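Data deposition worksheet. Section B asks for the primary sequence of the deposited chain exactly as it was used as input, without tags or linkers unless they were present during the calculation. Section C holds the resulting structure in token form. Section D is free text for depositor observations; keep each observation to a single sentence. Incomplete worksheets are returned to the depositor.
Section A, Depositor: J.P.
Section B:
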Amino acid sequence: MRRLRGGAVVAAVVALAVTGCTEEINGSGEPERAAGGGGAALAAAESLPVKGRSPKTGYERGKFGSAWADTDSNSCPTRDDILKRDLKEVEFTDGTCKVSSGVLRPDPYTGKEIVFRRGRSQVDIDHVVALSDAWQKGAAYWDAGKRIALANDPLNLLAVEASANRSKGDGDTATWLPPNKGYRCAYVAAQVAVKKKYELWVTAAEKAEMKKVLSTCPDQKLPSGGNPTKAPERFQAR
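Section C:
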């Protein structure tokens, strides 16, 4: 077993988010600051196109490729990449890829400390923008490469407490927000960032709730980074 070092950086990021701080971390690990001094998340939310929700007809998980595909070609499944990023006190099985245990301190959705142990975990990897929600708001019309990219993009993935994740289901901002109120601005900003990056639309109710939440934190930054919006051609979906 090997222990991951440098977890203090991840801990600081999560702690800032849970306590309501508006500084976000982008895909390169650097703070994201809006040009002009803030308000990037609220401005981005206001720019999202509004349409009605399309039918869920035709949706299945396989349309977004196999689960946790290694689209960044680092020889580790996406799930392990996110566990390494978000957990503290990480230990591995065989090298530095397969995460065997760690601690989610704190869980962004509940604010609690959650222990991860492979095979009997209380930690899920959440798609911040649920794949079914994406399907109903534009992804049904995409090619497979873009859907696979969304499903494995670190910008859209977060290690969270399992029961909170399952209570969310495929809800959007209008139907579900984290019980941890101190994380709601960061959570909504992340949804806005993903929807803007992938050119997804929102419903009128969803946009209104996004603006309502973000109006309580008008300096909330917009997360950025993650993977390209098209997966390598070797990855296939149904």
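Section D:
Helices lie at 7-18, 40-47, 78-86, 131-136, 144-152, 162-168, 184-197, 204-214.
The CA atoms of residues 48 and 113 lie 34 Å apart.
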